[in-house]
Amino acid sequence: MNELTPRFWEIFLELYESLPRQGPGNRTCAEEALGLCRELPSTPAVLDLGCGVGGQTLHLARITSGTIVAVDNHAPFIERLGRTIAELGLSDRIRPLVADMANPGMPPESFELIWSEGALYQICIESALLICHGLLRPGGYLAFTDAVWRKDNPPPEIKTSFDFDYPAMGTVADVLTAIDKTGLSLEGHFSLPNEAWWDDYYTPMERRMGEMRAKYASDADALGVLDQLAQEPEMHRRYSDYYAYEFFVARRTTGGGGP
What we know:
By secondary structure, the protein is α/β, with parallel strands linked by helices. It has a single domain (20-192, 242-252), classed as Rossmann fold (3-Layer(aba) Sandwich), CATH 3.40.50. The protein contains nine helices and seven strands, in the order H-H-E-H-E-H-E-E-H-E-H-H-E-H-H-E. Helix 3 links the parallel strand 1 and strand 2 (67-72). The longest helix has 22 residues, at 194-215.
């Protein structure tokens, strides 16, 4: 992805806006992470940061009894989530909102659970953790996924790919250090299994790219962008031993704010 032209973004958004989710994850992983929130209230106030079209938002609605504010800065994602919520009759429990994760405009200490899958890195993990600390009520939980390196010296191809989108990507130990510095208490963490990458993310992505190739069969520019986007699942097939998505669950201890 060397030349991010307007045409690139047009095709990129057409693809990603159509997917059931915008990153790895599944309901089983959501349930495991929620299981680490051992003292979560029965009807928690939940904030889903970087919700995309709401794949994980809907999981949260089904496996908790809480109310959810779902935030993303890309309006078409929120519009699609709004339609889905209406169709499922969940408008009384989920409020989709176009807002910036770095400044969501929520009052301090508003939530018992903050959830974010594959999004916090966009505003720097350390900054995001501080923001979440301030939005959590004392005793509240933060559950998030983040890409991490599993091995030293990854092949240049995959290192270059991640450096393009996430140059500050570190290891599990780096994220644990950031959690500790923020004044949050780690409750647990685990790596997403391979099916969490494929079942609801890469398999639908590759299927949709096939449909788009047929649609744009005579459009060389569009096909070139699709070739670029197809590198992501292909590199996961080849290099997944070198990196992972890790689910972290931390808690704001009862007491004052973070550092």
